[in-house]
UniProtKB/TrEMBL annotation:
InterPro entries assigned to the protein according to its UniProt record, in alphabetical order: ATPase_csu/dsu_sf, ATPase_V0-cplx_csu/dsu, V-ATPase_V0D/AC39_subunit, V-type_ATPase_csu/dsu_dom_3
Identification of the protein by name: V/A-type H+-transporting ATPase subunit C
Entry's Gene Ontology molecular function annotations: proton-transporting ATPase activity, rotational mechanism
Alphabetically ordered keywords of this record: Ion transport, Transport
Keyword hit for Transport: yes
Protein species of origin: Alkalibacterium gilvum
The keyword Transport belongs to this UniProt entry's keyword annotation: yes
Length: 350
């Protein structure tokens, strides 16, 4: 058993400093009163968490999509800071956590291969350099991808090549097929890697966070596919994350086999998540539960075990939430929403 206090003392202090640079409620309220993208950029330039990525931006000539890309790159910047500061054991966890970022980056280049969107500046040079050095992804080859065959070939030598190559057997695979394949592979890999890279003490923390996340995502997936696509149970089952935490195989089967949404809710209220879902009756409420319960578990673990992977996970999760809020506000400003409406959208009041 390792001494987590001594192991994590330095990086926990570093994280506390980074946490102090996250935006507070007062600042979100101030941003809600801004009336232009120019004012939005000027405001964030004064904040330590964004001064570096926005320093060369001319706020008088910037597109919203480009700005959203820069905001997203702030997450990768902070991930890199933690990775460079972390010791060997902490880097093992960051490598597992970073699989989510790798897949997000791959999806961006995948959409360009499908001729759906451009990349803009969302993937920073520093993060692409991290991919080159730590993931066996050829970032340079990815940047040159224009077609699906090129996308697949760019993944040679990485762990993502084989799952993507298996789609060759599917007739005209869609973007959904590719993204689902990447997501399922990522979730499975994340769960498997914990056994190889984490100590027993941290494995329990990891399982509480990721296990709950995967259970709730599977519940949401089943609901969506039943409610909006009317897919048969056997097809839905192939789209689920192949990981169980507090949901048993029998409960998953019962949710899949529920003849209607009323039966779905009845089965769900018989699981270990019953106390959280008793008053729910819609998909929107399910997604809100996912966000709220995950936040609660992450914060609880960080509070109870501050000298552990929980503190790293908590910071990155909070930074991602911050970017989501800023992106939401930016979109609202773009569409001329007023301060009160923006505050309602982000769930904050003056």
């Amino acid at each position: 058993m390792i001494d987590l206090l001594n192991e994590y003392k330095a990086i926990t202090t570093k994280i506390r400093g980074m946490h102090g640079k996250l935006l507070k409620k007062k600042e979100y309220i101030e941003i809600s009163h801004l009336d232009s993208i120019r004012a939005f950029v000027s405001y964030l330039k004064q904040k330590p968490g964004y001064s570096t990525i926005l320093k060369d931006v001319d706020e008088n000539h910037i597109y919203r999509s480009y700005l959203e890309g820069l905001l997203n790159s702030a997450v990768y910047e902070d991930f890199n800071k933690l990775y460079h500061f972390a010791n060997f054991r902490q880097r093992n966890f960051l490598k597992i956590y970073g699989i989510n970022y790798e897949v997000n980056v791959l999806k961006k280049f995948l959409r360009r291969a499908f001729d759906i969107s451009e990349i803009y500046e969302e993937v920073s040079e520093e993060y692409l350099d991290y991919l080159n050095r730590h993931s066996n992804i050829n970032a340079k080859a990815l940047e040159e991808v224009k077609t699906l065959p090129e996308f697949r070939e760019s993944l040679k030598g990485s762990m993502y090549y084989q799952p993507i190559k298996q789609l060759d057997s599917v007739e005209k695979p869609s973007l959904f097929d590719y993204e689902t394949t990447l997501d399922t592979f990522a979730f499975t890999t994340i769960w498997r890697e914990k056994n190889k890279l984490l100590e027993k003490d941290e494995e329990k923390i990891f399982e509480r966070i990721y296990g709950t996340k995967f259970d709730l995502l599977n519940i949401i997936f089943i609901y969506r596919y039943k409610r909006y696509y009317n897919l048969p149970p056997e097809q839905i089952n192939t789209l689920l994350i192949p990981v169980n935490y507090r949901l048993s195989d029998n409960e998953i089967s019962a949710l899949l086999s529920a003849e209607d949404l009323e039966a779905f809710w009845r089965v769900l209220r018989g699981t270990k998540y019953a106390k959280y879902v008793n008053d729910l009756d819609s998909g929107l409420e399910l997604e809100k539960l996912y966000e709220d319960l995950l936040d609660k578990i992450i914060q609880s673990n960080a509070k109870n075990d501050p000298y552990s992977i929980a503190s790293i996970y908590n910071y990155l999760h909070d930074k991602e939430d911050e970017i989501d809020l800023l992106t939401t506000i930016l979109e609202a400003i773009h569409y001329d929403r007023g301060p009160l409406e923006i505050q309602k959208i982000i769930g904050m009041k003056e």
